Amino acid sequence: MEKMKKTSALSILTLFPILIFGQSLSIHAMFGARYDDLRMCVGSSAAVKGGPVGDIQLDIPIHQNGRQTIVFNLPLMRPVLFSQAFGMLQFEPELTFETRTKKRVWGPEAGLSIHYGPDYRYDLENRRNHFWAASPFFS
Fold it and tell me: Is residue 68 part of a domain?
């Protein structure tokens, strides 16, 4: 019975975007590095302005027109990881404006970065001066 509930919940989550937007979901992993002279990075030492970054995101196409698509990227891993493991918030939803060619998919992104936690001068053992911050970002 428990397995059936989990399967039903997963089916509903998978079918929701298809019913609402007529599209399917995709999941992508994002890894790289970032420079940030404001927020603490859990992957680097205190007073280091930046470090590694990664996330697993749920991609929901919300508009498609031939070779162009607008995709809503919903972060999944970082909000859960940061809240449960570090008592912080890192949430950066974004819109991607994709253009498809024969060999690649490319396009700009715009999003909102929402943060709660200490600044870059602190590390995991010494966390003070928590603050809220929000700003747009473009890439």
Answer: yes
